[in-house]
Amino acid sequence: MKAGRIKQWAVGAAAMALPVLANAQAADPKPWQLNMGRGVTHLSQNAYEAHMLALWICVVIGVLVFGAMAVAMFKFRKSKGAVADQSLTHSTKLEILWTVVPVVLLLAMVFPATSKLIQMYDTRESAMTVKVTGFQWMWKYDYLGEGVSFTSRLDRKSDELRQSGKVIAEGDHDNYLLDVDNVLVLPTDTKIRFVLTADDVIHAWWVPALGWKQDAIPGIVNEAWAEIREPGLYRGQCAELCGKDHGFMPIVVKAVPKAEYQQWLAAEKAKNAPAAPVAAPAAAPAEAAPAETAPAEGETPNTDATAAAATQHAAVAG
Ligand SMILES: [Cu+2]
């Protein structure tokens, strides 16, 4: 029992040390990972840098403060005959020092942090928009302007395992509760705007490798963006307690090179194609024709995605 636990700790410590030694954090969080990862986007790199700056400032402060305390306690201990100094009740010099130093430190952190936050909210000049809608308990993705949309829910194997009542062993599933049936396919090196909303309760869409999480709130459209640098599979989860199956609505993003994405998109469109000719003649009586041109015009500028999102949202709800 005891040996088993020691082994467990040893394995954990090794797993913890390995990424540090290799100086390479994988995009997805790993068990026993202590530091945050760098992620695969510009924004995640920004978050990592802001975090490391604050972390190192805290480390230096910690070493200085606890070091001074340790020295004081050891050097001026009672057994050595130390007597407490009761005369120091006020020192203007010290007060100025311990006001100025924190102000300088805060300023050193606030300027880079602010510029990073501004970048984070700048969704202009994005090449495409994906609408993310949270449902109890799955996600729906709409590639706005492309006519491609699908839902993404927990993979069947995870679902069966979780409902089987058995204790999950290591070999049962490679990505237990972190796999989905339909992954969100995105192109790399492309500025992708996300508009996020929800159909029922508040959810939050979170893929750590992208560097942000954003609330998905019914009746509100939130924005975010990502430009993924490396192709790969990035996993995430809902990050807002949204009901009993909150833990069972994972997210999987598959980032592929642009050409591959275009192929995938064409294939998805082809899948939906057979339905289109059937719908078109039905909605084409003479009088409907002018009305039909209006939404087509509105669809072209990307700026109107909020309205488009609202329309699609209503369609989903119905
Ligand atoms: Cu949730």
TrEMBL record:
For the Cytochrome oxidase subunit II transmembrane region profile domain, which residue ranges apply? 28-124
GO cellular component terms, alphabetically, are: plasma membrane
**What keywords would UniProt list here?**
Copper, Electron transport, Membrane, Metal-binding, Respiratory chain, Signal, Translocase, Transmembrane, Transmembrane helix, Transport
* Record family assignment: Belongs to the cytochrome c oxidase subunit 2 family.
Q: Ribosomal protein as a keyword?
A: no
Co-factor(s): Cu cation
From the UniProt record, list the reaction(s) this protein catalyses. Answer: 4 Fe(II)-[cytochrome c] + O2 + 8 H(+)(in) = 4 Fe(III)-[cytochrome c] + 2 H2O + 4 H(+)(out)
**Cited Pfam families:** COX2, COX2_TM
Matches recorded under SUPFAM superfamilies? Cupredoxins, Cytochrome c oxidase subunit II-like, transmembrane region
Compartments reported by the entry:
Cell membrane; Membrane
Q: What is its main location?
A: membrane
EC number(s) on record? 7.1.1.9
Region span, Disordered: 281-318
- The membrane-spanning stretches of this chain are 50-74, 95-114
Q: Which BP terms does GO give this entry?
A: ATP synthesis coupled electron transport
**Topology with respect to the bilayer:** Multi-pass membrane protein
Please report the stretch or stretches of sequence annotated as the Cytochrome oxidase subunit II copper A binding domain.
125-267
What does the UniProt function comment say about this protein? Subunits I and II form the functional core of the enzyme complex. Electrons originating in cytochrome c are transferred via heme a and Cu(A) to the binuclear center formed by heme a3 and Cu(B).
Listed PROSITE patterns: COX2 (PS00078), COX2_CUA (PS50857), COX2_TM (PS50999)
**Signal peptide location:** 1-26
Which named protein is this?
Cytochrome c oxidase subunit 2
